[in-house]
Design a protein that fits this description.
Elements lengths: L9 E6 L18 E9 L5 E9 L2 E8 L2 E4 L7
Antiparallel strand pairs: 1-2, 2-3, 3-4, 4-5
Length: 79
């Protein structure tokens, strides 16, 4: 599996209540990731996408799914 990063910039973000799916009984995320409370809109798109997180121990990795592919978000600062 190769690692792919998000190359589009994030145009805007908004915060909602975090959905309650994606976390196992042990408190770690499932392989599909856990949803965060943030939605992001990528530049050039009108669709809002849920910012997801893979959490292992105390290190979290944020990503978004685009066309079924997980793209890692390098830097995220809520706008």
């Amino acid at each position: 599996m190769s690692v792919k990063y998000l190359t589009q910039s994030i145009a805007e973000s908004r915060q909602t209540a975090a959905p309650r799916y994606g976390i196992g009984a042990d408190g770690y995320t499932l392989k599909s990731g856990a949803p965060t409370s943030y939605l992001v809109r990528l530049s050039g798109e009108g669709r809002w996408r849920r910012l997801m997180c893979w959490q292992f121990s105390n290190a979290g990795t944020l990503f978004v799914k685009v066309k079924g592919e997980c793209l890692i978000v390098r830097d995220f600062q809520p706008k």
